[in-house]
Amino acid sequence: MKIIAAVIGTGVGQKHIEAIDKFKKSRVNIICEKDKKKIKLLKKKFPRKYIVNDENKIFKDKSINLVSIASYDNYHFKQIKKCIKFKKHIIVEKPMCLTENN
Fold first, then answer.
1. What mean pLDDT is predicted for residues 71-98?
2. Total H helices, total E strands in the chain
3. Is 8 within 8 Å of 79 (Cβ atoms)?
4. What span, in angstroms and rounded, lies between the C-alpha atoms of 19 and 30?
5. Amino acid 1: pLDDT
6. What does the pLDDT look like over 11-56, one tens digit per residue?
7. pTM score, two decimals?
8. So what's the pLDDT on residue 45?
9. What is the dihedral of CA 31, 66, 96, 41, to 10 degrees?
10. How far, rounded to the nearest angstrom, does the alpha carbon of residue 41 sit from its chain's CA centroid?
């Protein structure tokens, strides 16, 4: 099985990109980042990757079968739920959730 991944957040997420791309049968196609300054840098560092600022493009893309969540902690729960809804495999940075209720 070929793993086609997306990464949300590019602080520690850049390490996720590098790790996923190291495996022969996996690659990151989409990177999601909201910070405009970081987007400019990412386009230079990863010229072959599709860089977006709207995470929903990841969830709607049927070719993406793995999402690595490295966004701010308060977004993790919402993004995990979207991954489940859109049948994506998940890697998530800690903490997975901030409270027992989410």
1. 95
2. 4, 5
3. yes
4. 14
5. 74
6. 999 999 999 999 999 999 999 999 999 999 999 999 999 999 999 9
7. 0.94
8. 96
9. -10
10. 17
Contact between 68 and 49 (Cβ < 8 Å)? no
Q: Please report the pLDDT score of residue 100 as a whole number.
A: 81
Which helix (H) or strand (E) segment holds residue 26: the answer is strand 26-32
What torsion, rounded to 10 degrees, do the Cα atoms 78, 81, 85, 89 define?
A: 110
Contact 55, 76 (CB under 8 A): no
Dmax over Cα atoms in the chain, in whole Å? 40
Residue type, 88: K
Report the C-alpha gap between 44 and 23 in whole angstroms: 22
Bridge partners for 3 per DSSP: 26
Distance CA 6, CA 12 (A): 14
What amino acid is encoded at 50 in this protein? Y
* CA 93 to chain centroid: 11
